[in-house]
């Protein structure tokens, strides 16, 4: 696993996990600011960035893999999108090690059902077909979707493209494995039972995570602190860097 550590102030150990298809470079600007006073560990998901591919790609396997490379005994988890799901699973597996959770444009359940706002299941199937047909072009369209409806969209999109180009594209089987986690995982029961502090932040214009997930999250666990950025999309930590930075610091 790729692990980038800095330890300037060491007031808090912060572990940052990117989303589906992305590598740890997406956190670079934020990590540089946080590293002034905190210990940052920035991880790649298996098969993304510079990390090794997992043969069995499941939510639990990914979470266990990340836990095994973190040497610090206690830490705060910051997970974006798929990374948020992984962070929730890590907290379930090692509740004594996770001090708090910061969920960035994340949801415990991505697929829409009668009792949960989300994305129709067939969207994941169609996306998998598009990836198999033209992986690079599909990834670029996905980046555009992440900033759609957001202020500062052009700048955020360029940052996403720069991060994506920092390493080779993930393998198709890794990307499909991640899509399957998004499609089939439901960690709502975990969020109901977690005792650590949980904070979540959403973009009101997110095209991947309906903003209705915010109120649904509170229904699961009223103790979860939810913040919504009105003019943000899915990549809100890039388009609204200062507001996101302030939100993150407030929870440390």
Automatic annotation (TrEMBL):
It is an enzyme of class 3 (hydrolase). Pfam families: Abhydrolase_1. Its EC number is 3.1.1.85. Residues 13-240 form the AB hydrolase-1 domain. PANTHER family: AB HYDROLASE SUPERFAMILY PROTEIN YCLE, MONOACYLGLYCEROL LIPASE. The gene is bioH. This is Pimeloyl-ACP methyl ester esterase BioH. SUPFAM superfamilies: alpha/beta-Hydrolases. GO terms for cellular component: membrane. It comes from Methylomonas paludis. Keywords: Biotin biosynthesis, Cytoplasm, Hydrolase, Serine esterase. GO terms for molecular function: pimelyl-[acyl-carrier protein] methyl ester esterase activity. GO terms for biological process: biotin biosynthetic process. InterPro entries: AB_hydrolase_1, AB_hydrolase_fold, AB_hydrolase_sf, BioH.
């Amino acid at each position: 696993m790729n692990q980038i550590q800095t330890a300037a102030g060491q007031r808090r150990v912060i572990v940052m996990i990117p989303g589906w298809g992305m590598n740890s470079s997406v956190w670079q600007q934020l990590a540089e600011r946080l590293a002034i006073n905190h210990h940052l560990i920035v991880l790649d998901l298996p098969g993304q960035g510079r990390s090794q591919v997992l043969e069995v790609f499941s939510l639990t396997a990914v979470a266990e893999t990340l836990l095994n490379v973190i040497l610090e005994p206690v830490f705060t988890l910051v997970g974006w999108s798929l990374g948020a799901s992984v962070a929730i699973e890590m907290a379930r597996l090692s509740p004594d090690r996770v001090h708090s959770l910061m969920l960035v444009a994340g949801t415990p359940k991505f697929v829409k059902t009668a009792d949960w706002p989300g994305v129709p299941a067939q969207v994941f199937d169609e996306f998998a077909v598009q990836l198999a047909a033209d992986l690079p072009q599909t990834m670029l369209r996905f980046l555009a979707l992440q900033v759609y409806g957001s202020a500062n969209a052009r700048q955020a999109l360029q940052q996403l493209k720069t991060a994506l180009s920092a390493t080779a594209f993930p393998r198709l089987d890794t990307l499909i494995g991640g899509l399957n986690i998004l499609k089939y995982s439901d960690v709502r029961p975990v969020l109901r039972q977690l005792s650590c502090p949980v904070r979540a932040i959403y973009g009101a214009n997110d095209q991947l995570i309906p903003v209705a997930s915010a109120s649904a999250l509170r229904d699961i666990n009223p103790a979860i602190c939810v913040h919504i950025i009105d003019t943000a999309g899915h990549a809100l930590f890039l388009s609204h860097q200062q507001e996101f930075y302030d939100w993150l610091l407030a929870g440390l």
